[in-house]
Amino acid sequence: MASLLGRFCRKLVVPGSAHGSRMTSTTACGSETVKSLNLYSAINQALHIALETDPRSYVFGEDVGFGGVFRCTTGLAERFGKNRVFNTPLCEQGIVGFGIGLAAMGNRAVVEIQFADYIYPAFDQIVNEAAKFRYRSGNQFNCGGLTIRAPYGAVGHGGHYHSQSPEAFFCHVPGIKVVIPRSPREAKGAVVWLYRQAVEEVPEHDYMIPLSQAEVIREGSDITLVGWGAQLTVMEQACLDAEKEGISCELIDLKTLLPWDKETVEASVKKTGRLLISHEAPITGGFGAEISATILERCFLKLEAPVSRVCGLDTPFPLVFEPFYMPTKNKASSSSSLSSPSKNTHFLIHGFSRLL
């Protein structure tokens, strides 16, 4: 997704870097120095900062010692030592359980789950231990220093064990935060084809992105589109295509799913009168259903059409049929009720057939 920084900043060329596939251009924007990075490089930079600024920080998981399968931890073990960056056995329940204990002792534990699909063996540790740790002690102790990082969603060839989007499972659990960044800048401040495909100008210094605060990344007046993570790239293209038809789309990146920013979405829908939600996870029980129900409760009298969802299918994630499963910009929704009295000539866009 294109960075807005490029419109306001002066670009400089610097010598190439041997750090993976990190981009080598640097941008000066006022007093801020930024680099063009893809997502995995931005995460690597963030982990460097975390380990360097806090001696209580640790990074561990399967294969992280040599850089991980996506190279997000490249160079960390060499720089900070194998006592702080280390491989673990192939046991997700044990990995997360160890992270909970480490965080409970006042440390910062950054746990890597190699693919989000592998997180299910750790489900009990996450929902029954980590999420309830503070509550069960009456706030006497907690594991708030625990971060679990896992790349989710389609990779282009992953099939049903490397392409799942399990975010809705965890959004049902009070006590944890579920965050899905859409880009390198968001990822560093706050995960799989975005690792290397998306490039954005990212500040080199330490900074934070506020959680539970959605971002209106494109303003519009006819319809609100809501998504998160990699799907934002698809939805932005849909907005551009719709614009050619005279349809003004407001695009919102939810960023944090638990707790999510209801107020920003509500304000947008009250303005546009229409809402379309898209995510890669199957439609039934997906987080889009929660957004739909909430907006119906809050904006019923302002809605000019039913809320529409364009999501993954209620099937195991396929291998060779991945293109048919994914919610793309040309995929039609089961709902075709986005018609507008003010644009009755051609605003019935058949769900996503012209929007996504």
Automatic annotation (TrEMBL):
Residues 37-211 form the Transketolase-like pyrimidine-binding domain. Its EC number is 1.2.4.4. Signal peptide: none annotated. InterPro entries: THDP-binding (IPR029061), Transketo_C/PFOR_II (IPR009014), Transketolase-like_Pyr-bd (IPR005475), Transketolase_C (IPR033248). Its cofactor is thiamine diphosphate. Keywords: Oxidoreductase. SMART domains: Transket_pyr. This is 3-methyl-2-oxobutanoate dehydrogenase (2-methylpropanoyl-transferring).
